[in-house]
Every structure is written in C-alpha cells, then in structure tokens.
Amino acid sequence: MVLLFGAAVLRFHLAWWRGHLGDLLVFQSWAVGTDRMKWFREVQHLGNFFPNYPPLYPSLCRLLVWIHEAAALPGDIRLPIDDMTLEESRPIILLFKTPPIAADLAAAVIIFLWGRHERRPGLGLLVAAFYLFSPAILYDGAYYGQTDTILLALLIGSGFAYATRRPVLLGSSAMLAALLKAQAISVLPILAAAVIIEWRHVWQRRFAELFLGAALSFWAVLALAGLTGMLHLFYNGYFTIVGQYSRTSYNALNLWWIIHSPLDRRPNLADFPADSLRVAGLVTYRDIGLALFAAALALTIWRWRRAADRPASLVLACAASAWAFFNLCTEMHERYSVVAVGFTCLAALWERKWFAFGLLSSLTTMINITLACHFWYPPCRWLQFHLNWFLHADSPGPFLAISAIQVLMLPLVLDALWRTGSRGRTPSVNAR
Fold it and tell me: What distance in Å separates the CA atoms of residue 124 and residue 108, rounded to the nearest whole number?
C-alpha cells in the first residue's frame, strides 16, 4: 500500500504539469463534443478532432465528463485545454490523466500477484516497484496523458490470466485491450496463438468461461458506446487509422528511422517518405513493414511453442512481438514502444538481467517521447533542461544511437526466448 500511495502521489504531481496539451484537447473534444466547447475555433489547429480510437476510451472520456458535471468538480470542462488557459485547465488535465494513472497502479498489483503466484513475492514486489517508477511508464501516462499504459495494463492482465489459468479474466481483459486500441495487435496474436497451441490440454474445457469473459466485456463496451454516442467508432477505430499518419516513421526511433535518417544533419519528419510509396514499383513500404512484422510474429510463436518454461517465455514472446511491432511496422509513433518496455520490465520476475535492459529501454523510450511531448517542469528547470537535451541535438548521432538501442532490443529478447526454450527445464505448474 505504501508503494502504491507513493507512486500515486508522484503521478498526480507530474500530472499537474503541462503534458501534451494537443492530445489532451483531442480527448476533451471527443468527450465534451466540439459544439459544446467554448471558442473552439481558436484552438482547432492543435490537433485532429476526428475520433480514430475504438469505442472504449472515447466512451470512458465522455463518462468522465458526465461524472465531472454531475459532481460539480473543479474546473470548466467546456473550456478548451490550451496554453492560454493552462492555469484554469489544470483540474481538467488531471481528470483526463486519471485513467492512465489508475491503470499503472492496477498493473503493479497484477505484477505483484503474478510474483506471489510464482512463489516469488519479494521479487514480485520489487518488479512492481520497478514498473511503477520506470521512466517511460511514468512519462507516457502521468505526464503525457496518453493511453498506452492503459493498454499495457490490460495486456499484462491478459498474460497473468493466461499463466494462472483464469479464463474469464483472460477473455475479458483481452477483449478490453482490443476495444481500447488497435495497437493491441502488437501482443494479442501471441496470446491467441498460445490458447490455440494449448487448446486440447488446457483451454478446450475452459472455452465457455473464456467466451463468457470476452462477451461480458464486449457487451459492456457496446452498451457504454451506445449510451455515449460512440457506436460509429467500432468502424472508425479500426478501418480508418491506417494511412492517417502516412510516414515510414512518425517520430519513432526504430528501424525505419535508421534507414531514412540523413547522416549529415538533424532529421525531421520530411525525411521520412510516405509508407504508401512503392519500392521498385512493386510493393509499398507499408507492405514491407507488415510482412516483416508477420515474419517476426510467426518466428516468435514457433519458438514459444517449443519453450519449456512457459510463464517466463510467454512474457518474452509478448516483449518480442511488441518490439517487432514498434521496429518493423510503418506509421509508428514515438510512444508505441511503451508496451514493449512494460513486458521487458516484467521479464525481470524470472531473470534479473532484465532490470538493466528494462531500465535502458525505458530511458530510450522516454527520451524518444520527448520528441513529441517536451518536458515542462517549473519546480526544477535544471531537470527540465537536461531531460529535453535530446531536442537540441543538431547532428543525427544521438537519434541514431537511440534508434540502434531500440532496434537491438528485438534480437536481444528473441535470443532470450531461444535460450529459455533450450535450457531443458521442467515446465512449471502453470504450463500443465
């Protein structure tokens, strides 16, 4: 409890400061409705207000607005979040940052329970603390105000449910992840393949409970979307997102950044071609990225199928899939590696070297995120300046170095998965 309280206090302190006002304004516009917001035309240049999420999060945002209005909480919910209204908007900023903060705390509880299930309660507590104070996790949710750590919490919950044979929880959390963000595809195929691989021995007799959990979540979100007027997002959230950010990389320091970054100057978005561009007149960059991701996914599933230590190897497989998604697919944003970082940190529950690699990848991801969301922290200008040092780099060297670290995380995790599968350990209780 002390750990959760300290983590919550730190998160709400960070949440008080600026964050990414453009994205927060987008969430506010989805929740309130552009027609109900004050002087909205003056701030429309800050973002794209066309809802492009699946229905869960926009519906949750609208529910938060209703709660705010019904409870008469502080702040004007109809005043657009903007630099000009920053002081007046702080209570509203906190409101929209509350879901990722709650998700972080829930994920830490799940990690601790997972450690206790593995008969490693002390290590489980340590890994939960490592997760809670991981720089990328802190920055993306509590400061930035984005939804990636909510997705990560649901995916960790799905992995925990699979490892501990809780079919209702597995079906429910996996369905919620799919209804939260289309980027759940970075990990859900691993869990789906794991269920299929162990279907006869484990999941066939639990199918009714698995289906029940998924159905309960689906119908609950469907009802919430109908109540909040978000039913159209069952289409928009999946079928209109590809091509919206049509670049090989959209601030993501990954393989595509290395391929297209200039070597003689600081790179910018214009250096990264549209991923719809055909290579040699045959296939697009997008096709190549998807093919590479599919190949990495197939390789990961094949190797996991032969793994002996299922709880540990499942986490490594999820981490490998998430790193492959971030590094190989096009149209990646800088924060889409947060899911990979979370599973890399979670792997420390079975092998302690992942504390070091989890910290390294978390730092590189946090620095990568500052490309899109600068750190604004008046209580300590020194910290603000040095955390934003990456923004002032004139040469491509720092960008390429961090890109190389993030790209190398994929073969590193795959190698660990290979070694887990070849150690000849007796499968754990959870793998029976």
Answer: 9
- The CA-to-CA distance between both ends of the chain, in Å, stands at 33
Backbone conformation region of residue 287, classed left if phi is above 0, alpha if psi is from -120 to 50, else beta: alpha
**What is the pTM (predicted TM-score) of this model?**
0.93
Which amino acid, residue 268?
N
- Note the pLDDT tens digit of each residue in 107-118: 999 999 999 999
Can you tell me the distance from the alpha carbon of 383 to that of 375, in angstroms, rounded to the nearest whole number? 9
Task: Please give the angle made by the CA atoms of 414, 159 and 330, to the nearest 5 degrees.
Answer: 55
Query: Is 48 a residue whose pLDDT tops 80?
Result: no
Per the listing, tokens 């105000």 go with: 145
Cβ neighbours, 10 Å, residue 80: 25
- Strand-pairing partners, residue 249, are 332
| DSSP-derived pairing of the beta strands 249-250 and 332-333 | parallel
Helix then strand then coil, % of the chain, to nearest 5: 70, 0, 25
Residue type, 42: E
Residues 252-265 have pLDDT tens digits of 999 999 999 998 88
User: Where do we find the tokens 């190897």?
Assistant: 313
Q: What pLDDT score does 42 carry? A: 54
Structure tokens given for 41: 């035309």
Query: Which amino acid, one-letter code, is at 27?
Result: F
Residue 219 neighbours by CB distance under 10 Å:
11
Cβ-based neighbours of 417, under 8 Å, separated by 6 or more = 300, 303, 304, 307, 313, 316, 317, 320
Average pLDDT for residues 78-91, to the nearest whole number?
83
Whether the CB-CB separation of 406 and 327 falls below 8 Å is answered with yes
- Residue 249: count other Cβ atoms within 10 Å of its Cβ: 30
